[in-house]
Design a protein that fits this description.
Number of strands: 19
CATH architecture of the largest domain: 3-Layer(bba) Sandwich
CATH class of the largest domain: Alpha Beta
Structural class: alpha+beta
Strand content: 15-25%
Helix content: 25-40%
Number of helices: 16
Radius of gyration: 24 Å
Shape: globular
Length: about 575
């Protein structure tokens, strides 16, 4: 363990938090609400990390809000469900999450600007298993009007451009059906007109729309909370080293600012690591994913700054045991934006389950139920790694106009730019499309013919698509008899390649149930805590429902903030 040098620190705080995603902002706000002086450090020039570009769902079993929407849940039901879906090697931390989740959101809503609401219908990802629920277990942030942040709004990381309309307008899940129906329904047309007017007025005084949803709303609410509670936030600041003081407590940090100047800080009560995990650390990541998965990540990159795992292991912390099931997966398509940056589009819920699309491998054959969770879709790709990486999402002209495909939004007038860039493959016959994606033409034609024959009746005997409430909830409720099934028959035909990407790593820094970082000997390292994706997940590589990263991030961020605030000063 690195010992302190004799140089005096430039600043002293009670608690220092490294990272500004949901876990870090929660820990900082919680410690500040306990009366601590808190410094939050962020290596980027904006706050929010991967949370800001996420769906913002928060999985909290047996939360008190579900009762109001007739979705009452019990901890016993959650235990039953998790016993069916999670390996179960870390029951103590899992029990702490179950016991503390609702208390955490109650306390955060009482002390901060965090506001969550239950999603009435958002089933767990394995809805046929005992203990699952059709909704209410997952919460979402209440929409946030970011104009109240004033100039500080510029510090909130923007969502992915591909998830905004008209260069900066966010929409809610409830807005999407109105956008689809606006040409057929006067009510929907009026709804969309009001959205556009509101957005136009907002852009008169802001760089993008100020009505925030999803993960962007979650970050903005927690960011406002941190500011209101007096947390000092320094962006463009990298932590290069952690050190122990003379008593052995981790209380000293070496940092580097945007001008490459080194500074020394002291955290008299505790340091909380919440830097986003090891997704972009090629060496460490390699211990936890199969070689066939590649290195693509849908998380925010860290630049050249060391993530929490590197900082912690340098002073003797323990990482997860090696496994090849250490990531949370999503199929993703990649492209180059107009500004030259690389785009990674996560195919979570917008296209795969909609009627009129199939996924095929390099042999031109289906290999998975396209409507399963994004995590299970990639698991199927990995199980067929020789042929299904990449896989191809195939649809026809009706589908891409109505639902979009990947980064291509619905009702896009011209697809020529995406075809020219190579992101989108287009052909007027299935045989020609097969040649474009490198699949055998007879096989692809036979696959579509077989699928279409059953799809006319809304059936999928090969994979059972649309057979449970989770899959149907992601389909098109206006399409019958099966919201997930329709034939593919109106050319031109289109294809987009998808490959495995992580939404965050399940593997990470090993902690106890109080978010204290454990050394290789299993004992807590005094003064050091971890939460968010830096903390080895309680889900152990499983993905039982929407928000199973952010639910624990808020809960253990709250625990870490409270525990650090309660530490004795040395």
């Amino acid at each position: 363990m690195t010992q302190a040098s004799s140089a005096a620190p430039d600043d002293v705080f009670d608690v220092v938090v490294v990272g500004s995603g949901a876990g870090g902002l929660t820990a900082a706000s919680t410690a500040a609400a306990q009366g601590c002086s808190v410094l939050l450090l962020e290596q980027a020039d904006v706050v929010g990390g991967t949370t800001a570009i996420s769906g913002g769902m928060v999985w909290i079993p047996a939360n008190h809000k579900a009762v109001a929407v007739q979705r009452a849940d019990t901890l016993d039901a959650a235990r039953t469900y998790l016993a069916e879906t999670v390996p179960g090697n870390d029951r103590k931390r899992l029990e702490t999450f179950l016991a503390s989740g609702d208390a955490a959101i109650r306390d955060l809503e009482a002390r901060t600007s965090l506001r969550l609401q239950p999603v009435v219908t958002y089933p767990d990802y394995y809805p046929d298993l005992p203990g699952s629920t059709p909704g209410g277990r997952v919460l979402e942030p209440v929409p946030f009007e970011a104009s109240v942040l004033g100039k500080a709004f510029a510090l909130v990381r923007s969502p992915l451009p591909e998830f905004m309309l008209f260069g900066g307008m966010m929409i809610s899940r409830a807005d999407i059906p109105h956008l689809r129906r606006m040409s057929k329904s006067p009510r929907s047309a009026l709804h969309v007109a009001k959205l556009l007017f509101k957005y136009g007025m907002q852009r008169l005084g802001a760089r993008r729309g100020t009505t925030l949803y999803l993960g962007n709303a979650l970050v903005a609410r927690l960011f406002k909370s941190a500011l209101d509670l007096g947390v000092i936030i320094r962006t463009c600041t990298t932590v290069t080293r952690l050190e122990a003081d003379a008593s052995g407590r981790i209380s000293l940090l070496e940092t580097r600012d945007a001008s490459a100047r080194l500074h020394r800080l002291r955290a008299s009560r505790g340091v909380v690591l919440a830097t986003g995990g090891i997704s972009h650390d090629a060496e460490l990541r390699g211990y936890f994913v199969p070689d066939s998965a590649g290195d693509l990540s849908a998380t925010v990159a860290a630049g050249n700054s060391p993530r929490g795992a590197r900082l912690a292991t340098a002073i003797g912390a323990q990482l997860s045991a090696p496994t090849k099931d250490g990531a949370f997966w999503v199929p993703a398509s990649t492209f180059t934006r107009a500004d030259g940056s690389r785009g990674v589009y996560p195919h979570t819920v917008t296209d795969r389950a909609k009627p009129g699309l199939i996924a095929v491998d390099g042999k031109g054959q289906r290999f998975v139920n396209e409507a399963v969770s994004y995590h299970e879709f990639v698991r199927a790709q990995l199980a067929h790694a020789n042929s299904a990486i990449p896989a191809w999402l195939i649809c026809d002209s009706r589908f891409i106009w109505k639902y979009g495909l990947g980064k291509i939004k619905p009702f896009t007038a011209s697809l020529n730019a995406d075809v020219a860039s190579g992101y989108l493959k287009r052909a007027y016959t299935l045989a020609d499309l097969a040649r474009l994606i490198g699949a055998p033409s007879p096989a692809l034609s036979q696959t579509v013919e077989t699928f279409n024959k059953d799809a006319e009746r809304g059936e999928d005997p090969a994979f059972g698509r649309g057979s449970n409430i989770y899959q149907r909830s992601l389909g098109d409720a206006d399409h019958t008899p099966n919201p997930c099934i329709a034939p593919i028959k109106d050319g031109p035909f289109y294809a987009v390649a998808v490959q495995p990407a992580d939404l965050g790593m399940s593997a990470g820094i090993v902690t106890d149930d109080q978010a204290r970082v454990l050394a290789v000997d299993g004992k807590p390292i005094a003064g050091l805590f971890a939460c968010g994706n830096d903390m080895a997940s309680i889900m152990e590589g499983a993905y039982p429902g929407p928000g199973i990263t952010l639910g624990p991030a808020l809960t253990f961020g709250w625990i870490a903030g409270r525990r650090a605030a309660a530490e004795r000063t040395s």
